[in-house]
From TrEMBL, chain A:
This is ABC transporter permease. The keyword Transmembrane applies. Keywords: Cell membrane, Membrane, Transmembrane, Transmembrane helix, Transport. Residues 114-303 form the ABC transmembrane type-1 domain. Residues 1-44 are annotated as: Disordered. It is a multi-pass membrane protein. InterPro entries: BP-dependent_transpt_permease, MetI-like, MetI-like_sf. The keyword Metal-binding does not apply.
UniProtKB/TrEMBL annotation, chain B:
Residues 96-305 form the ABC transmembrane type-1 domain. This is Peptide/nickel transport system permease protein. PANTHER family: DIPEPTIDE TRANSPORT SYSTEM PERMEASE PROTEIN DPPB-RELATED, PEPTIDE ABC TRANSPORTER PERMEASE PROTEIN. The chain crosses the membrane at residues 102-123, 135-162, 182-201, 227-246, 252-273, 280-301. It is a multi-pass membrane protein. It comes from Rhodococcus rhodochrous J3. Coiled coil: none annotated.
Length: 316, 315
């Protein structure tokens, strides 16, 4: 086991991530890479602090705060149609990042888009985490029939190509932030479920669980008090990585016109709309594109850092 | 022992396929609202409705409908499109070649780039190639395909005018125009897969090159390229295949985006048209075909392991 009981199972907070702790020298490895394949160049990166994750964390904090308090910023509303059409960035003090084909402020739209994209992605990650952890705990602790059901349901979800399943789940329903979050949550749940199940199995036979059992604790209590706190850390360490894929998935759906319906701005929708005037004003794609890229990049970097911290044995 | 393993695999495959079809059916059965709204005229009589239900197989109880749908599906009949009345199977077969070509070429391109880069990065970990590749990989991984596609169009089609912006030129109109219309979509699709393959190969290679058989090959005086590409690459084929199974799922989703972006006449654009036209029988058919194909391809990947690695055959 990579982490013992006396190590506090603190939830990773993005702000204080990288400065305090040097990276453990592990480069990001795909979740599906078999463990035997994880060999790193010796020494080279061992003592280096993870600058990428630090700046990633900074960007995430900034964008989340900006999305939360966008209404307080001195910006035009995202749906106000102005008379300056398709203005390139940095030419007008009132529209720093320019305007789109309808004269709407790009910065305001990008930040309001962040609100929707991030709300959907964070909501979906939470849905996935709750469903996945609960399913994994139950299957890993009780095994038998629960394990069979667990296996069948995760395999069914994973049997669909993710975007196709999402299309079938949300496309023909009323597209709203809630539908999207639930749909994306279902698609993301198996990742968490498998990590939770594997960790539950690893902890189910440990001394403290047996001790609790012999003292007559109920199964619910054991799961909640003894196993869950240990399972939570590896599960949470995967949250940002899953969130990154869900941000991309939400963007893809919006790009295809299957996301939160217009006029609500979303990054994917803005890129799709900007594509029409790529020749006249490429900034219409580049502005939401940069926001998108920075967010996904940051989530990936912070995610890799967090997984590296927790250690790979416990995260499957 | 061998037969038992095969039987177990087959049983699992059948159960997953059954669950996939039930799920596909239920996902689209439980859509709220009137599914015939796009077919029936305003103020349709109950008789017209009944006739339409009959035609699209929407009459009867839920289990009845499921088994008749599944029964026909097993015989290759997925019903008729609610919009165009064309049999769903025909529409899918007409669009499938484009999607298959895109997916195959993307995997090939990804392998073509990833094998030399990944192998060399693993051969000299921490070297210049490795560091550049790692950096580019982490950047590429954070650019979703729809954004990458738009950026590629901007650079190569709009600014340099070197390639067509969108559209599909079939092979019958000449090889060069055909390839030109394929370059940007294939590169867009291949990018993410290349990253996955490079990372995998690099890490595999670092581990493999420390094995004794590599040392013995070196002691026998074999050349470095031969050791890298023949001896050390073989064990990696195993994990590469596993990742390719996952890639396929991503590629199938990716083609939806790329085909929409470049207006290519594949399955992806078909599913989007079906959704916007609320043609749910067509959506159901496509989802079923794609999911079944995905499951079967992954099963095929599982079956290939023993061919590549003798150790799997015995265990």
């Amino acid at each position: 086991m990579s982490h013992s009981l006396d190590k506090p199972a603190s939830v990773v907070s993005e702000e204080r991530l990288p400065i305090l702790d040097p990276q453990d020298g592990s480069a990001p490895v795909d979740e599906l890479t078999p463990p035997s394949a994880e060999v790193e160049p010796a020494g080279r990166r061992r003592r280096r602090r993870d600058v990428g994750a630090f700046f990633g964390g900074c960007w995430l904090v900034t964008i989340v705060l900006a999305a939360l308090f966008v209404d307080l910023l001195p910006l035009p509303a995202p749906d106000v149609v102005g008379n300056l059409y398709s203005l390139p960035p940095f030419q007008n003090a009132e529209h720093i990042l320019g305007t789109d084909q309808l004269g709407r402020d790009q910065l305001s739209r990008a930040l309001h888009g962040a609100r929707i994209s991030l709300a959907v992605a964070i909501g979906a990650t939470l849905v996935a985490m709750v469903i996945g952890t609960a399913a994994g705990l139950i299957a890993g602790y009780f095994r038998r029939a629960f394990d069979v059901v667990f296996d069948l349901s995760t395999n069914t979800i994973l049997a669909f190509p993710p975007l196709i399943l999402l299309i079938a789940l949300v496309a023909l329903r009323e597209p709203s932030a809630v539908t999207l979050a639930i749909g994306l949550g279902v698609v993301g749940a198996p990742t968490f479920a498998r990590i939770a199940r594997a960790n539950t199995i690893a902890y189910a036979d440990r001394e403290f669980v047996i001790a609790a059992k012999s003292m007559g604790s109920s199964s619910t209590r054991i799961l909640r008090r003894e196993i869950l706190p240990n399972v939570l850390l590896p599960v949470v360490s995967f949250a940002t990585v899953v969130a990154a894929t869900l941000v991309v998935a939400e963007g893809s759906l919006s790009f295809l016109g299957l996301g939160v319906p217009p006029p609500a701005p979303s990054w994917g929708g803005m890129i799709a709309a900007g594509r029409e005037s790529l020749y006249e004003n490429p900034a219409l794609v580049l502005v939401p594109g940069v926001f998108f890229f920075l967010t996904v990049f940051s989530l990936n970097r912070v995610g890799d850092w967090a997984r590296g911290r927790v250690g790979r044995e416990s995260s499957l | 022992m061998m037969y038992r393993a095969v039987a177990r695999h087959a049983a699992k495959l059948v159960s997953v396929l059954a669950l996939v079809s039930v799920t596909t059916f239920l996902l689209l059965e439980t859509i709220p609202g009137d599914r015939l709204a796009s077919v029936l005229p305003e103020g349709a009589t109950p008789e017209m409705r009944a006739a339409a239900e009959e035609r699209f197989g929407l009459n009867g109880s839920l289990p009845e409908r499921f088994f008749s749908w599944l029964g026909s599906a097993l015989q290759g009949d997925l019903g008729r499109s609610m919009q165009s009345q064309v049999p769903v199977t025909d529409s899918i077969l007409e669009r499938l070649p484009v999607t298959l070509e895109l997916a195959t070429l993307s995997i090939l391109l990804a392998l073509l780039i990833a094998i030399p880069v990944g192998v060399y990065s693993g051969y000299r970990p921490g070297g210049l190639v490795d560091r550049i590749a790692t950096f580019l990989c982490s950047i590429t991984l954070s650019i979703p395909s729809f954004l990458l596609g738009v950026l590629l169009v901007f650079v190569f089609a709009v600014t340099l005018s070197a390639l067509p912006v969108t559209g599909w030129t079939p092979l019958s109109e000449g090889l060069v125009p055909h390839i030109r219309s394929l370059v940007l979509p294939v590169v867009t699709l291949a990018a993410v897969e290349t990253v996955g393959f490079i990372r995998l190969l690099r890490n595999d290679m670092v581990a493999t090159l420390q094995q004794d058989f590599v040392l013995s090959a070196r002691a026998r005086g074999l050349s470095t390229p031969r050791i890298l590409l023949v001896h050390a690459l073989r064990p990696s084929a195993f994990s590469l295949l596993t990742v390719m199974g996952v890639s396929l799922g991503r590629l199938i989703g990716g083609t939806v985006i790329v085909e929409t972006l470049f207006s290519l006449p594949g399955l992806g654009t078909l599913v989007i048209t079906a959704i916007t036209g609320r043609d749910f029988l067509l959506v159901q058919g496509i989802v079923l075909v794609v999911a079944v194909a995905y499951v079967l391809l992954n099963a095929l990947v599982d079956l290939t392991y023993p061919l590549l690695d003798p150790r799997v055959r015995t265990s």
